[in-house]
Specification:
- The structure is a single chain.
- By secondary structure, the protein is of the alpha+beta class.
- The chain contains 7 helices and 13 strands.
- The protein has helices at about 5-25, 35, 145, 150-165, 170-180, 240-245, 290-315; strands at about 30, 40, 45, 50, 55, 60, 75-80, 95-105, 115-120, 200-205, 225-235, 250-255, 270-275.
- Helix 1 packs antiparallel against helix 7 (about 290-315).
């Protein structure tokens, strides 16, 4: 019989537990939707309610290229659509499409440590994610799939430079500069030459955590907190084309974390561009229990990985 030293057993158990927990918080791809976070279903459709807002789906992505102190920070987009109508006015732009944007952070992060701004670009990029034969609702990807990498680099560098030089409110200056500046590297950003189109600028200061008061918490890991950073309303008609264009459009979001003497997270500015989009199943009716099955699969794979780690350690003893 193999005799294990207490230290060896402790190491094995530690690796087993950490492997399983790591799986729980890891996203399966760059941009994920309701299946990943196990939103409840309403019939065959995704539904996610956060506080008083009910969404037809969500898009969740980690913020890319962040300093190590911001590892695990995420952005979430949810879209609320007013009910359709039957009548002669369906072709009029009176239907409300309200998009909500949330910042997701580890539970131990203090929101007062997050000075900075967020810029939501309300016009979709001229390119779309490669659908690979799937419905547009299920398509996902990253900013580099729809925006030239030189544009992403120039835009984030510009934002960081402004934050580093600002002797006034950074959000005010950022908004003014982006409105008046044309970036040659971003000629195809919104199909408007170097113009960045219509955008909304919000401060990250003084954010309050959203209460988890429903059966949908659209973040991974589930212990993370969410803070609403912006909401934008667009009006369109009641056609299917308008629904697809508004509810499933790609939204680039620029985050600018400024850092300051009072921040324990950053000592200098950092900027990133994340592309969000609601992601749903191509045909939810294929598997009405897909959310539940996915959650079970993730946990099972984490458990299997842990067993593999234990087996490897025992083999070396």
């Amino acid at each position: 019989m193999i005799q294990l030293k207490p230290s060896s057993l402790a190491l094995a158990l530690s690796l087993f537990i950490s492997s399983t927990l790591a799986e729980d918080g890891e996203l399966s791809s760059t941009l994920v939707g309701c299946d990943e976070v196990s939103c409840p279903k309403e019939g065959i459709n995704d539904r996610c309610t956060v506080e008083d807002n009910t969404f037809l789906g969500i898009g969740l992505s980690r913020i890319p290229d962040v300093p190590s102190s911001l590892t695990g920070f995420s952005l979430v987009k949810g879209v609320n659509v007013s009910a359709g109508m039957a009548g002669n006015d369906n072709d009029k732009p009176t239907r409300s499409f309200k998009s909500f944007y949330y910042l997701g952070t580890p539970s131990d992060v203090e929101t007062r440590d997050l000075p900075g701004c967020v810029v939501v670009f309300n016009d979709a990029p001229s390119k779309e994610f490669n659908q690979n034969g799937t419905d547009v609702r299920a398509a996902s990807g990253s900013c580099s799939d729809v925006i030239d990498k030189t544009c992403i680099k120039r835009l984030t560098e510009k934002a960081t430079e402004l934050a580093d030089e600002a002797d006034e409110n950074i959000c005010t200056r950022l908004e003014r500069e982006l409105e008046s500046t044309s970036l040659d590297e971003c000629n195809d950003f919104m199909g408007n030459g170097g113009n960045l189109g219509n955008f909304t600028v919000k401060s990250l200061g003084g954010l309050n955590a959203v209460k988890n008061s429903s059966d949908c918490w659209p973040i991974q890991p589930k212990s993370d907190q969410l803070m609403e950073i912006a909401s934008v309303t667009a009006l369109n008609d009641y056609t299917d084309t308008a629904l697809y264009d508004e509810a499933y459009k790609i939204t680039p979001v620029l985050t600018v974390f400024t850092g300051n003497d009072n921040s324990s997270l950053l000592d200098k500015p950092a900027s990133q561009l994340t592309c969000l989009k609601v992601v749903t199943e191509e045909d939810p009716s294929d598997d009405e229990n897909s959310s539940e099955n996915f959650a079970v699969t993730v946990k099972a794979s984490g458990f299997a990985a842990g067993i593999a780690v234990l087996a490897g350690i025992f083999a070396l003893l």
